[in-house]
Amino acid sequence: MGPILELKNLTKVYGDGDNKVVAVDSVSLSLKKQEMLLIMGPSGSGKTTLLSMMGCILRPTSGEVLIDGQTVSKGEAAPRPYEDVLPDIRLRYFGFVFQSFNLFPSLTAVDNVSLILRLKKHDGKKLQADARRLIERFGLAKRGDFYPADMSGGEKQRVALARALAGDPPIILADEPTANLDSKTGLDVLRHLRELSGEAQKAIVIVSHDPKAETMADRVVFLEDGKIRN
Ligand SMILES: Nc1ncnc2c1ncn2[C@@H]1O[C@H](COP(=O)(O)OP(=O)(O)OP(=O)(O)O)[C@@H](O)[C@H]1O
Ligand SMILES: [Mg+2]
């Protein structure tokens, strides 16, 4: 079985002249289905930049991202079609979880999830029921009609997990998902992620400083000045 996700010599340079920062410097990696990969490294080492390029949110300066062996994102010099298909690629292949939850404040828990199902063109009649089922999976049966402002951090992050899982993407990317949570709630979120890689057969990439994440991951890579430390 080949890797679900491959990065080939991914590089991101921000700015130019005196302001030039090589945030990610020729990183190559591959991720297997059902693998939980942890990325660690000091602040400013390029973790978020790398994750954003992986998830096709950020175009690399050079290098390539491949999914199932097909190039989906390529350096800035590459012509369209890459640009045009990226939103579809993101929707189809990735679920995202962020440190600050990033839920829509004006939507209930269920609607934060059903919105993604709608974007993914799921059957309109089933959106609400399917979204509710996803939320229940994360122990939030009673929170479906709550707004983010009325939920705890852990509850919001579990809604974010449900949303990341909506439409069943094969890859989940999580950037410091436990950083705003207390240690017990953080552990709960990490356990959910771990379960997703096992039961739901997701490939998971998580950026975290959390020592608990280290014990759960299948593999850990350390970034330093944009490079993988060997
Ligand atoms: N949009 C941007 N424009 C210019 N420089 C940027 C931009 N985003 C990040 N950088 C720089 O790129 C480097 C890597 O940043 P990045 O956010 O990827 O690091 P990080 O490892 O995620 O850090 P942290 O642990 O603090 O979240 C840093 O030097 C940062 O200042
Ligand atoms: Mg970061």
Spatially, the strands of the biggest sheet line up as 6-7-8-3-9-10
Rough shape? globular
Radius of gyration: 18 Å
The CATH fourth-level homologous superfamily: P-loop containing nucleotide triphosphate hydrolases
Bound molecules: adenosine-5'-triphosphate, magnesium ion
Class from secondary-structure proportions = alpha/beta
SSE topology string: EEEHEEHEHHHEHEHEE
CATH level-3 fold name: Rossmann fold
What is the average of the pLDDT values? 93
Per CATH, the class reads Alpha Beta
Give the uncertain stretches in residue-range form: none
Helix content: 25-40%
Q: Hey, roughly how much beta strand do the residues contain?
A: 25-35%
Instruction: Write down how many β-strands occur, each being a DSSP E stretch of 2 or more residues.
Output: 10
Major beta sheet, specifics?
Answer: 6 strands, mixed
How far apart are the termini? Answer: 25 Å
